[in-house]
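Lay summary. Proteins are chains of building blocks that fold into shapes, and those shapes determine what they do. In this project we predict the shape from the chain. Here is one chain we studied, written as its sequence of building blocks.
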Amino acid sequence: MRIQLVGLGHVGQSMLQLISEKTSLPNSLIPDARIVSISDSKGTAVDEDGLSPLEVLRYKGLGWKGFKKYIKGYTPLNAIRRVESDVMVELTPSTLSGEPGLSNIKAALRARKNVVTANKGPLVVDYEGLTRTARKVGVRLCYEATVGAHVPVFCLVESCFKADELESIRGILNATTNFVIGQMEEGRGFQKSIEAAVRAGWAERNYSDDIDGLDSARKVVILANALFGSNARLDDVKVEGIRNVEAQVDAARRENMRVKLVCQITRNGSQLELTVSPKMIPLDDPLATVNEGDMAIEYTFKTSKRIFVSAQFLGPRQTAYAVLNDILRIETRSAC
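And here is the predicted shape, written in a compact code that computers can read:
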């Protein structure tokens, strides 16, 4: 299997580290896997015989100085269109426009390449169009890592509950806000909690997408479209972040409850209600058990009723594992 990687941030670098470890990508499953191109914002490294992940990481840290396989100005679109591959892995940052990830994914699908992505932006902007194109050309578009990192989300529903009807979803799907609220529960103010999150690596210095609920809202849109067959847009989500949550946290402490930024999808007749907002929840609610930067999702099915899944989240390495798992799914032609 020939793999192209577009985007070399935290998740992309974690993926290369995992691939370099013998236990992360079983040779019995992908005996001939090789990465034939790796693109960042300034250029692309290309080797049709396969790039060494550790060599790429080393030269990336040096600003690509002395790396003859790196072509400055050779864009991801150049690589997608000109380098032969079986899978394009898209890991550029999520944006409101979906770009540049949207164009990268469209180009790969048109070239009849399978796509794996952890980038939420393109799926929020054009989920229906991208999935339709993938079906039309006969390739797979896998995006398990876009919601909840390694928490089983789409795979769980698609493989275990095909005969059931999904009625609603609740979840804690943003690690940063869950950590920040946890800090506030310990008596820190909002700003001190943010600073603690940045120091601990749970928040970027530009944390507005997380704190204002935008990251969670993107995930709600993807869930609605992928699992409910909707055609939701970001504007369809009622969003409230956690900038003004301090009083709510204090009230919850007095009432022996907890506050969580809850993502929710519920049916209202033929319509879906999509919300992201901080909620006070009782201690016997499963979501109350989700601490620090961990994440969880609760499904309610017509017959199976409530299914709750939570997972410890430690960082981009686990998101990278979800990406690798999608690559394995493509190679083995498995549903999950």
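What the prediction tells us: The first helix runs from residue 10 to 20.
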